[in-house]
Amino acid sequence: MNKKQKKMLARIVLSALLMIALQFVPVDGVSRFLLYLVPYILVGYDILIKAVKGIKNKQVFDENFLMAVATLGAMALAVSDNGDYTEAIAVMLFYQTGEWFQGYAVGKSRRNISELMDIRPDYANIEQDGQFMRVDPDEVAVGTVIFVQPGEKVPLDGVVVEGCSTLNTSALTGESVPRDISQGEEIISGCINMTGLLKIRTTKEFEESTVSKILDLVENASSRKSRSEAFISRFARVYTPIVCYSALALAVLPPLVRMYFWGLPPVWGEWVYRALTFLVISCPCALVISIPLSFFAGIGGASRAGVLIKGSNYLETLAKTQSIVFDKTGTLTEGVFEVNAIHHNVIDDKKLLEYAALAESASSHPISKSLRKAYGKVVDRGRVTNIQEVGGNGVIALVDGVQVAAGNAKLMKRLHISYIDCHQVGTIVHMAVNGVYAGHIVIADIVKPASKPAIAALRREGVRSVVMLTGDSYKVANQVAVSLGMDAVYAELLPADKVKKVEELLLKKASGSTLAFVGDGINDAPVLSRADIGIAMGAMGSDAAIEAADVVLMDDDPMKISTAVRIARKCMAIVHENIVFSIGIKVVCLVLGALGLANMWLAIFADVGVMILAVFNAMRALFVRKYTEQSGVDQQKNVSLRSA
Amino acid sequence: MKKSYKIDVDCANCANKMEDAAKKTTGVKNAAVNFMTLKMRVEFEEGQDAGVVMQEVVKNCKKVDDDCEIFL
């Protein structure tokens, strides 16, 4: 609670107590009016002032005006009629309570979100003249060595030059499993160093660092308005004047009709009362507050799950997604080459890998790297002699005095060794030990373990078609597509072809639905911007992609795509619920009010009650359930239970 | 030129009103109010003095929502 809210609460409580106390004071006439005026002014003076200022600034029709007219009218009626001033005071009281509550709820959720998004580093540690110094991250030049102690945030992007540690990336990615980092690896700002001291050489300025980019994205998310929001502002613009004139008509026309056409007494008081009730009910607070709030909570909830949505319009588009087009490399697959299989080997797998890793130890080719990675141990170069690189074919070397040949089919042919072709796709390293064929090693880009469940999850979310585009060969593409259960696959595409393919798919999709493209960012920027909604994976991907994308997934877990769709659908459902619920209740109450079936008490309950419910409903968008493979099934059960 | 200002505003709709008011101010190319982070981002037109334009923005915002605050 801030100072303003405390003051308001005090005013509300005091005024309520005064009003109750006055029930027991037996006074009449002018003194009664003046006494009751005290709690009324106490609770509502700011509304009256705002209403007057609104009129002065030509912003007549707002909720302050509605409330001022309604309560002043009720006061006037009470003077001439029965002297029951409580109604006017109560209306003001309830209205202010509602406003207070709403301010409180919004403040609380704002704090929740900003705490979650509290990734801005306050300082960086540098060493100067042998001493640690804390400096503003803004002032650190590229190439400076900074120190990050356990428990501190990494302030700038860089490369670890010394030390190893575990990183908590949950604020960035929503991923709670800590990540290990060691010397030579790239580190991104915004992570929290958990265990050991890290020495980092910065590679980017603060403005260009991941953490700045993310904060920038989140802070500017609301600049793009959704259609629902635009609808609400348009609605509020026409609604309030219409209601005001209707109320005026309700106060004036029926009595005139009664008087001149039916010859009945006009009962002015009754109709003015009905008109005032009508005004109180009509206050569009629930709507104009809860819709932006729902989006604000939805975007907040999403960023907490590691999904950055650049604006509420994208939340709306994302919710309608029925076709998803994936880029293959780096999105569905790891994008790095790994030993996938070993076939037809006569010696032990490990031994074969050891020979391969040692023979290739002098090479820096990606294939040799993946062989060494699969071997897993430190390569002792001393065991390798007579290394003979055969350009474009492979390598022949003596490992522990044994002749090892590792390379492609050409190398085997050259050495006149018969080899067995591989049925699997990827890069094949044939091995020969002492001139005898010893099997082959398959190295390929492996499919991410999360890809298959991610696609299954998307289908559960109601995505109809899942398509894969790739620049890779048909053979590789087909294998991946079949294993993941894609609906269609288009291979051997150049970046420009990808745009064309997406355009074709855009023409084919069902009207009213949207098409999302998911890429890791390398060469994807044009496609990302061409699709209805572009989803870029891995904030560590290319900057151009993040710029072009509408939704950015902080890590490269494909599971996050279904999370994003789910959040968007939930948020839109809440928005629609609130629109229908608020307008529905309003219309019913307005009719009741016009017919004289609702008094002002019911009116204010309808107004404040609906608003509180709508605000509560909006806050639901903030909460995102973790979506894991295991819970997928349970959640489906929940859904079907609920719908039953 | 773009600048970001801290603001204080009570409700989401008032934030929208402020945004509209800021956008209509002469010298402002574009403006966005983020209710979530309580920030206003203003893009000024070429050759405009941000300080002078912002005075007008504050005035216009006060007109639509008396309670709002922009911390210059």
TrEMBL record, chain A:
One of its GO terms (cellular component) is plasma membrane. Pfam families: E1-E2_ATPase, Hydrolase. It catalyses: Cd(2+)(in) + ATP + H2O = Cd(2+)(out) + ADP + phosphate + H(+). It is an enzyme of class 7 (translocase). The keyword Cell membrane applies. It is found in: Cell membrane. Signal peptide: none annotated. Its main location: membrane. Keywords: ATP-binding, Cadmium, Cell membrane, Membrane, Metal-binding, Nucleotide-binding, Transmembrane, Transmembrane helix. Residues 120-219 form the P-type ATPase A domain. It comes from the Bacteria. It is a multi-pass membrane protein. Its EC number is 7.2.2.21. The chain crosses the membrane at residues 9-27, 33-52, 235-256, 276-300, 579-598, 604-623. The keyword Membrane applies. GO terms for molecular function: ATP binding; ATP hydrolysis activity; metal ion binding; P-type cadmium transporter activity. NCBIfam families: ATPase-IB2_Cd, ATPase-IB_hvy, ATPase_P-type. Belongs to the cation transport ATPase (P-type) (TC 3.A.3) family. Type IB subfamily. This is Cd(2+)-exporting ATPase. It comes from Megasphaera cerevisiae DSM 20462.
UniProtKB/TrEMBL annotation, chain B:
CDD domains: HMA (cd00371). Residues 1-69 form the HMA domain. One of its GO terms (molecular function) is metal ion binding. It holds the Pfam family HMA. Transmembrane segments: none annotated. This is Cadmium ABC transporter ATPase. It comes from Megasphaera cerevisiae DSM 20462.
